[in-house]
Design brief:
- Helix content is about 35%, strand content about 10%.
- The protein has about 750 residues and is of the alpha/beta class.
- The protein has four domains: about 250 residues, no CATH class; about 160 residues, Ribonuclease Inhibitor (Leucine-rich repeat, LRR (right-handed beta-alpha superhelix)); about 50 residues, no CATH class; about 100 residues, Sandwich (Immunoglobulin-like), CATH 2.60.40.
- Strand 11 and strand 12 form a beta hairpin.
- Helix 3 crosses helix 6, helix 4 runs antiparallel to helix 8 and helix 7 packs antiparallel against helix 8.
- The protein is elongated.
- The chain starts with a strand and ends in a 49-residue tail after the last strand.
């Protein structure tokens, strides 16, 4: 609802959800702001304009209207089992009060011999049939058991139970009063009534009450032998309320069943009259009281505006309104028609959608190979395209993160990031986020990417005022970017921004955007309210569509999965978070249910460690860094193992012409030019760096003989030296035409 007020020279549109004194005002101080901030004075003095200032001719009023629903189902429809038990206790007390009232009235009923039945338009024309009362009570049991079955399998069963208990409590409380204040003569001349008691003591009254309770107030089991409970009909209350519950909380496409129960309830009411169990006025009053109470209650429950008690809400003057507010204050909106089994079925019985992968420690370690699988000191983490549905555990595992990439997932909400004080870049593009929230603690955040989400609440950017280091913000592809004045509003609210949607924010642009800020904000709030209404309607449409698709899917046989999947992908659907989640589940289900022979598995070439001639290959499967030194008498291999890799996972095998190191099943192998002494080889590992040093003495080490230095007795010229003796001719170690001497590194 938008109110237009014409005053002075122009009209101003005032949104119903705009709070001029609330925390969303432009001059509101953020919880993380402080007076020493370079943006403090700029935020504390918002720009003023003639149209938006209180001193102008525009008249502004405040209308308190609850914002549309945007919570998750667990918050919108809480179980609140304690309240359900309280409602059950309330029902038991009022039912007991009704039985006590009947026990008292029984002794006040006019004598049947002296006072006949009152004149009745229906009873005077129909002869009493005692069997009709039994038929009516059998139909009551059918309707009640059907309601119990429906409520049991309803997804929000505790809310429905609370409502039924409270409605019955109010009806029985009013019935206990009406039957007591006005006692009518017995309407049937054939119905058995127990003899009256001369002195109705408290013990007799309580005994009668418990006898009535043991028979649940029915005559078919012989427990209801007391008369006088006429205004109004309890049979009619039960039948009518049962039909209303079935029609309200069962799918609308089951309209044939609704008509069947309507006919059953009508038949039960008529049978009560045929048996002369009640006067016609009793039935009419019971119908009126039950239907009006049921429809009034559900009108209040389905309209959050009526949850507030004010001078304009006259329904709030009902005497039971305080109980209604207590039981319904946390239930937000109409209850969806969803059903599930209260008990978990064996996996072989239930067709469950595949569970999407969550954010696990194993996944984080898999993505931290660049940091030697250490997540405690991880500074950059990429978790894109993992179908993650919730951000969790990141703040506890990776507090040193500076870059977090979560794009192309199914995340609906920004949460559990408050411990990442060093985070500078957060990318959550292509997710299901609908609101900017919970980012205030990210003190070092410089770049935030929210591209292609479902953000419609543009005023949520005001929560980023405390992120003083924020320089780049991306909102491209969100519904809020279609609002008029979107860019001007954002750069005014966030003066620390340097780039918005990849475009630089200039000083002149910021000065122009500061004009008419309040009026621009009011219009944005109006668009937000309309977007929330459209979004709620979209949720209802998509939910019904998904329910129909699931029912069609269950109608197929197990061997028609390919046909099911094909029909799903051919159907048109709205672009919304619910559809993206359903598409991800179908994609995962299609991958799980694909027959193993449908696609030929890629045959992996067998790993070869040796050539056909027996020469060893050089391999580095674990992709480790290493240093190899060829000394005259030994070979040294310095292998750069991970620092925290358990030594028990490493195997070293030194053979005469090669050395092999196996790390967690991956082979590192190096061919040697000369044979080594395997029995004298050694292996050591550094506790500081984790590197492993393998020393392999050569079988025939090179010997360098240095001739003795002969001291000359005279200072004259010495004869030319004949050269070193016993030296090794290095030209003979590796011949140029010997291509198989050393294999290539692969």
């Amino acid at each position: 609802m938008i109110v237009k007020l014409i005053s002075g020279r122009e009209g101003v549109e005032v949104p119903d959800s705009y709070d001029y004194n609330g925390p969303n005002l432009p001059n509101h101080q953020s919880a993380y702001a402080h007076t020493g901030s370079p943006y403090h004075q700029q935020n504390s003095q918002p720009p003023q304009s003639d149209a938006g200032s209180p001193s102008s001719d525009a008249v502004m009023i405040k209308i308190d209207v609850p914002s549309p629903l945007r919570d998750d189902p667990q918050q919108r429809y809480p179980k609140e089992i304690g309240k359900t038990l309280l409602a059950l206790v309330f029902l038991a007390l009022n039912f007991f009060l009704a039985t006590v009232s009947l026990s008292l009235v029984h002794d006040r009923v006019p004598d049947r011999d002296t006072h006949g039945p009152l004149p009745d338009a229906f009873l005077d024309r129909v002869q009493p049939q005692d069997w009709a009362l039994d038929v009516s009570e059998i139909l009551i049991m059918v309707v009640v058991n059907s309601c119990v079955l429906l409520i049991t399998f309803h997804k929000h069963r505790f809310i429905v139970m609370r409502r039924v208990f409270l409605l019955l409590s109010v009806l029985y409380l009013m019935r206990s009063m009406t039957m007591y204040v006005t006692v009518l003569p017995v309407s049937s001349r054939t119905y058995y009534c127990s003899p009256k008691s001369n002195a109705s003591s408290a013990g007799v009254i309580v005994k009668r009450a418990f006898q009535l309770i043991s028979g649940m107030g029915l005559s078919i089991n012989g427990k209801q032998i007391y008369c006088g409970d006429y205004i109004y009909s309890g049979h009619t209350v039960t039948l009518v309320l049962g039909y209303l519950v079935i029609s309200e909380y069962s799918p609308k496409r089951f309209w044939p069943i609704h008509w069947i129960y309507w006919a059953i309830s009508l038949t039960g009411v008529v049978m009560v009259l045929v048996a002369h169990g009640h006067y016609t006025v009793d039935v009419l009053i019971a119908y009126y009281a039950t239907t009006r109470l049921f429809w009034t209650y559900h009108t209040l429950a389905n309209n959050s505006l009526l949850l507030k008690q004010n001078g304009n809400n006259y329904i709030g003057r009902e005497w039971w309104y305080f109980a209604f507010r207590y039981f319904e204050r946390n239930v937000r909106g109409p209850i969806p028609l969803q059903y599930d089994c209260p008990l978990s079925l064996p996996s072989a019985w239930a067709k469950k959608s595949p569970k999407l992968p969550g954010l696990t420690e194993q996944l984080v370690r898999k993505r931290s190979e660049h940091n030697e699988l250490i997540i405690g000191t991880l500074e950059e983490l990429s978790l894109h395209q993992e179908d993650i549905e919730r951000i969790e555990h990141i703040g506890n595992w990776c507090r040193e993160l500076k870059i977090l990439l979560l794009q192309s997932n199914l995340i609906p909400r920004l949460e559990n990031l408050h411990r990442l004080k060093k985070l500078e870049y957060l990318n959550v593009a292509l997710n299901n986020i609908e609101r900017i929230e919970n980012l205030e603690p990210l003190e070092s955040l410089r770049k935030l990417d929210l591209t292609l989400n479902f953000i419609g609440e543009l005023t949520g950017v005001e929560s980023l005022r405390g992120n003083y280091n924020l320089r780049e913000l991306f909102l491209t592809g969100n519904p809020c970017t279609d609002y008029p004045g979107y860019r001007e509003y954002v750069i005014t609210v966030l003066p620390q921004l340097e780039h918005l949607d990849g475009k630089e924010v200039t000083r002149s642009e910021r000065l122009r955007a500061a004009k008419d800020f309040r009026l621009r904000r009011e219009k944005i709030v109006q668009h937000e309210a309309q977007h929330k209404i459209d979004r709620d309607e979209q949720k209802v449409r998509v939910r019904h569509c998904l329910e129909e698709q699931e029912e069609q899917r269950e109608a197929y046989a197990d061997d028609e999965e390919e046909k099911r999947t094909s029909e799903f992908w051919q159907q048109k659907s709205e672009h919304c978070p619910e559809t993206r989640i359903q598409m991800a589940k179908y994609s995962r289900r299609a991958g799980k249910d694909r027959p193993p022979g449908l696609e030929k598995p890629i045959e992996k070439k067998p790993r070869r460690l040796f050539a056909d001639c027996g020469r060893p290959y050089n391999l580095n499967e674990p992709r480790l860094g290493f240093e190899f030194r060829d000394e005259p008498d030994r070979y040294e291999l310095d292998l750069h193992l991970y620092r925290f890799l358990d030594t028990s996972l490493v195997e070293v095998d030194a053979q005469p012409n090669y050395v092999r190191v196996t790390i967690k099943g991956k082979v590192f192998q190096l061919a040697l030019r000369e044979d080594i002494r395997t029995d004298s080889s050694s292996c050591q590992r550094s506790m500081t760096t984790g590197h492993m040093l393998v020393v392999m003495p050569k079988l025939n080490p090179e010997q360098i003989v240095v001739p003795p230095v002969v001291k000359s007795k005279s200072a004259g010229k010495q004869p030319p030296s004949e050269g070193l003796r016993g030296t090794v001719n290095i030209r003979g170690i590796c011949e140029a035409n010997d291509l198989d001497a050393i294999p290539d590194l692969i």
